[in-house]
Specification:
250 residues, mainly alpha, Four Helix Bundle (Hemerythrin (Met), subunit A), two-stranded antiparallel sheet, 7 helices, 2 strands
């Protein structure tokens, strides 16, 4: 019997069942070097790609915030040296009055913020180990049963903001608002802008910490902590810079 083109087409079509080369592969197979879950590696690379994009955004945010405070520093230094121009004396009038800082409360606030940076790093490392153990099949991801380093970080962040409110209230009781001068104005500008930018990072950490309550995926929690970690450490270092500027340049 001669072989026609129709017979060739039938031989080329894959079979729906049975073994052999005509067997249709499943989307998620079992066996082989992927331990039966090839999508796991796609998820891993997808997580790395999402983290890379988030960190690019965080770096751009850090650069913009750093640029802002560099400009504020220059304005602070130049305004301290030169006051408004007086046409009568043809010179600059020095109207800068140094404010007396509540150093005890400011040092407490500094310690709280630095401690929150440490607890955040401990939370990030704990979550990273959980993911590694889960991928190896050694230990399931049970974030809720671990020590709440992330929740402690959020509490310390709110504690720092509460300490700043105490400092500002002490200035109010001293009558600084009634007798405002460039020195006190720059203090409120620098500390207020820092607190405002810190709130943004605190909201991101609060979102990650509330994941077990509002049922947010563990992967999303970890990405929020990984990306926000750089920003939070930067804000801690920025506060140390602001504190040193206010202390040494008065």
């Amino acid at each position: 019997m001669p072989i026609t083109s129709e017979h060739v087409e039938l031989e080329r079509k894959p079979k729906l069942g049975g073994g052999g080369p005509g067997k249709t592969p499943h989307r998620r197979g079992y066996g082989g070097g992927d331990d039966g879950d090839p999508d796991r590696f796609r998820d891993f690379h997808s997580r790395k790609e999402r983290l890379r994009r988030l960190r690019v955004g965080v770096v751009l945010c850090i650069v913009s915030v750093g640029t802002l405070f560099v400009c504020l520093t220059l304005a602070y230094v130049f305004r301290r040296q030169m006051g408004p121009w007086d046409p009568l004396t043809k010179g600059y009038v020095r109207d800068w009055i140094s404010v007396r800082l509540p150093y005890v409360q400011l040092w407490i606030n500094t310690a709280v913020l630095l401690l929150s940076s440490i607890t955040l790093e401990l939370a990030r490392r704990r979550m990273t180990r959980q993911v590694e153990f889960a991928e190896l099949g050694i230990q399931p991801i049970r974030f809720g049963r671990d020590f709440p380093w992330l929740g402690l970080t959020v509490l310390l962040g709110f504690g720092f903001l509460a300490g700043q409110l105490i400092v500002w209230n002490q200035f109010r009781l001293q009558g600084v608002f009634q007798h405002a001068n460039p020195g006190s104005s720059f203090f409120f500008i620098l500390t207020g802008m820092h607190a405002l930018h810190l709130v943004g990072g605190l909201l991101a950490l609060l979102y990650a910490a509330a994941g077990s309550v509002v049922r947010i995926r563990f992967e999303s929690q970890m990405l929020a902590v990984e990306a926000t970690g750089w920003y939070w450490h930067f804000m801690a270092g920025l506060w140390m810079y602001i504190f040193a500027l206010l202390y040494f340049v008065r």
